Amino acid sequence: MYEAFWEKMGDRCTVEIKGCDSLSYFSNPKNPCWFLEPKLEEAIRSLHGAVGNAVTDGYSIVVGTGSSHLVNAVLYALTSNHQPNQISVVSAAPYYSAYPEIADLVRSGLYKWAGDARQFDKDEPYIELVTSPNNPNGVIQGSVVNRDGGILVHDLAYYWPQYTPITSSLEFNIMLFTASKCTGHAGSRIGWALVKDKEVAKRMIKFMEVTTIGVSKESQLRVANILQFIADGCKQFGSPQGDNFFEFGQSLMKKRWQILREILKENQMFTIPKYPLDQHCNFFGDITNAHPAFAWMKCKEEIEDCEKLLRGHQILARSGRRFGSDPGFVRVSMVGREDEFNLFIDRLSKIQSFNNGDE
Ligand code: PMP
To answer: What is the pLDDT of residue 357?
Structure first.
């Protein structure tokens, strides 16, 4: 979706890496996170400062191969101090479909997936993954279990101005971010964690050491350039060069959501969640709305399998079942390439004509 922006920027974010560059495992032996490139750390702090979505002062930064790597690292870090029993990992349904897979893949003796946080009634320690805005439904949410012995991990992959109004600079104990959703550079596989407790950060770093001995320097240097570029561009609103990445992203998301809402209004086949209107966004200094990265669509009551219905119209969507919800829901991506989005809209509008008996 963001390719058009980066194409327009041409060579302004090109990074040259010579054959003799960045050979060592080490980036900065003085930093406990010794594989974190100083330029990337600087760019991350500068971007959060410019956007105002998270506090970085007093936080350790741990870089990962995407934030997926960091979810693994954080589960290890929070459970590896000799707990006698496996710790339950929960998240409020509908939750990001990768969490159960990540938690249970290697059948760890340290932790296990325990499903929907709303159903969690055990009187024992737990980890709650709080995703806000949420994947799949874009809802802004907080923790739901709220019991003693709980540790919260905030996955803030979508807390950027193109998706949601930035209403405060967050200061949770563990916050996860990723370049994938911020700038669109999913292929570079760079995510970062802002961690308040130095011991937790240390154990996350240990996990990185043992699993991958750090994170690709080429990727870090490329993403450092990209993040610094968009942080600098934040200072200019309405610039004729169109350097403000978030302005570009928000206007594209806004347009896509307008188109989707119009189609849904006409066809009356699906509903989508109601998002709070008119919130003040500290970044834009204006009232803005939510434009989630996914549309969480619910089919009319009589259709049980929404994914199947859409597949019949050549629309690939992910069933609500995968997110701990029911198959009457589907998640559709709003952040694909322009031609994919246009095809989706075209095919969705045909479902409407079919059901009106026009086809
Ligand atoms: N968290 C959430 C909520 C996500 O939606 C995603 C990507 N779909 C990730 C984490 C992982 O992102 P990545 O590994 O690409 O950084």
So the answer is: 46
